[in-house]
């Protein structure tokens, strides 16, 4: 029933999208040629020519929407992701439109009208889809359009799955219970009861009252997996597998097909790709050079004040661990009194630390002390964006205490990073910081770097946790 409803909904969604595309195109034409808002030198093509283009625009845009996963179920798809996909699909559509007009040498077709359509259609699609999303959530809250699920196996994966469903009732998921061979019947986790043994599938499946079965076996019970999948497929119930090793396998695993044998890489690192690595390095060089020129007055004034207010070198060079576990000298403006190497290598800076100088408090709080690291970026030791590098003493300490800590050294360390713009700087949770670093490493894109740099400008420079 759920599958049929989803098919009907997708067809309706396609019709709605086609209507929205046609209406926004007509509105763009009216705004360009009839409203008087935009400059209009004259209508060189007839109305029929402009609107005959819809025969090309509507199907192409619907195909693009399908290609960008805009017809997948909205239960768990985020609004931001959906809006981003709408922008991407419309941008490709805009470029295709321009290319076609260039190929057919149609110079009289208004490019500005096409751009107006591009802007209006994005806004309308985002609005319409949020209205649909809001309506569906209200329907589900009233007990309609629900998806009934049975979990097979009591494990960490089962508990995490239940946690997420309970935290997001708008998804419309209802967990009917859990089957497990090793947990006592009647055991309850957050309102979800263990109904019995896995063999009860023989009784439950023929009743045909389930929409989905989620296999959430604990990792030591995977020997039963093939048998359970076979049972579920015979019943025709949609079955999905939620692995109990999600703390090992990344959210978006990198898979390979080895002559029909699926191979899952434990860690996906986009920056191991040569093209990605070169493009990021080019941006680093250009960005670091521009930053040195832009901030040179600030660095000059800072150097003068440090020289006048305390004894010691202007620049402080500290050993850090970088790409492929190789150490390098990371540069900072000196913000503390000169101390013995053994004293500073194994101690955190704490609040009201007496070692910090007067100007040191200010430049640490505003991150000005980090500006010399632009030279580290130029030399190739660091990147503009990446996990922050740590001292060897702490690397040895954390590699034993925190799982996957050393994965951060598969990419160049950065001046700023995803952890830093999310507030994990200074004396904050190392585990949370590593979680954010790993997310960055596995999900790197050039756009992600730009986003982090943008966030750094607005909320990353001033560090409330810098002492």
UniProtKB/TrEMBL annotation:
NCBIfam families: EPS_sugtrans, WcaJ_sugtrans. The chain crosses the membrane at residues 12-31, 43-68, 89-107, 113-132, 285-306. InterPro entries: Bact_transf, EPS_sugar_tfrase, Undecaprenyl-P_gluc_Ptfrase. One of its GO terms (molecular function) is phosphotransferase activity, for other substituted phosphate groups. Belongs to the bacterial sugar transferase family. It comes from the Bacteria. Keywords: Membrane, Transferase, Transmembrane, Transmembrane helix. This is Undecaprenyl-phosphate glucose phosphotransferase. The keyword Glycosyltransferase does not apply. Residues 280-460 form the Bacterial sugar transferase domain. It is a multi-pass membrane protein. One of its GO terms (cellular component) is membrane. It is found in: Membrane.
